[in-house]
Design a protein that fits this description.
- The protein is mainly beta and 217 residues long.
- The protein has one domain: outer membrane lipoprotein receptor (LolB), chain A.
- The chain is built from two helices and twelve strands; from the N terminus they run αβαβββββββββββ.
- Strand 4 and strand 5 form a beta hairpin.
- The longest helix is centred in the first third of the chain and has 15 residues.
- It is globular and about 55 Å long.
Length: 217
Amino acid sequence: MKTFVVLIAVLLILFETAGAQTRKISKVEYDRVLDVAVRETNNAFPFVFTVKTELLKDGKVTASATEVAEREGEFRERITRTKVVDGKTSKVFQLRIDLQNNFCSDDGATWRRSQYECSGPEFLYEPGEPESVEYTVADAGIDGQPVKIYREYSVYSPVAPGKKKDFRESIAMIDSRGFFISVVDTDGTLDPNNPSLRRTQIWDFKTKFKPVTAPVN
């Protein structure tokens, strides 16, 4: 899939920039850049937005949830959600035509109206307030075009005596327009570094998709 080709490129760039010139920035600068990226990127229709969340144990993926949204316009999108848990795969399909017309399907062929999101369990973790946060930015390039890598790294106190500290790392790649290319978030414990959850978001403005229309059962 093109999404995972992009992800490989993202990871290669991150490795390449690990030793590149990186400077610390303030929370104000970090928030300002990312707030603009969120607003501008998510309003630049059409695009394909992919979010893949993976649960990890000892470096291996134990479960995953992937959402691919073909966003034609505001409140107009085609979504496929795929979950893999205990080796079993399940899918849910959704068509959002506008605020009043939303449809769900278990097979992509037979649809039912719904006033709710067509979703299942999410993999979420909120560790609370961090004891320390560091913000940095580094310059890089992809396909000959300049990009910036913004990193937020947070450390959290142990939740109980005898427990390890937690960490959360967020790495955002932003192009010269100020648009997101990708965001990779990783949660885990420290001493040693042991990731437990990874969430990868990718914005794709090149892939074409068919118009989003109401289903005909």
